[in-house]
């Protein structure tokens, strides 16, 4: 298992940007595909994006495509989510997660989760 800790959340105005980070412990980070999910109050956890273990493949939810970018640095055991052109509907707790699958979008395929970081976008 890999332990994950998110950071970088906060309050931002609509149209602004935030960069989330996820720090992973353990020596096997590079063997996991990594994903970002989010959960708004009263809603189910939803897929945001995923990146393969090498970083060569990414996949995004339609709602964030073109605005959010996932990247990873396997040498530093870190995952990032650059969020631009933020909208009020992006308000949620954001989670990073790890999976042994090459690529996955369903939360049940992810076996390690961080504690989450709050992102609030004001209109």
Beta-strand percentage range: over 45%
- Average pLDDT level: 96
How many β-strand runs? Answer: 11
Distance between the termini: 39 Å
Mass-distribution shape:
globular
Major sheet description: 7 strands, mixed
Roughly how many Å is the radius of gyration? 13 Å
Low-confidence stretches: none
- State the order of secondary-structure elements, H for helix, E for strand: EEEEEEEEEEE
Please state the structural category: mainly beta
Helical fraction equals under 10%
Number of helices: 0
Structural write-up:
This protein has 123 residues and is mainly beta. 0% of the residues lie in helices and 50% in strands. It has no helices and 11 strands. It has strands spanning 3-7, 10-13, 18-25, 33-39, 46-51, 58-60, 68-73, 78-83, 92-99, 112-113, 117-122. Strands 2, 4, 5, 6, 9, 10 and 11 form a 7-stranded mixed sheet that branches. The protein has a 4-stranded antiparallel sheet with strand order 1-3-8-7, with no helix packed on it. β7 (68-73) and β8 form a beta hairpin. The chain starts with a strand and ends with a strand. The model has no long low-confidence stretch (mean pLDDT 96).
């Amino acid at each position: 298992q890999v332990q994950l800790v998110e950071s970088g959340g906060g309050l931002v105005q609509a149209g602004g940007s935030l960069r989330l980070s996820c720090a992973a412990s353990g020596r096997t980070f590079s063997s996991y595909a990594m994903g970002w999910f989010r959960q708004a109050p009263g809603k189910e956890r939803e897929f945001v994006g995923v990146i393969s273990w090498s970083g060569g493949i990414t996949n995004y939810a339609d709602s964030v495509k073109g605005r959010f970018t996932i990247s990873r640095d396997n040498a530093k055991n870190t995952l990032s989510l650059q969020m631009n052109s933020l909208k009020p509907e992006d308000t949620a707790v954001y989670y990073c997660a790890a999976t042994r699958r090459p690529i996955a979008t369903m939360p049940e395929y992810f076996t390690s989760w961080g504690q989450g970081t709050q992102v609030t976008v004001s209109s």
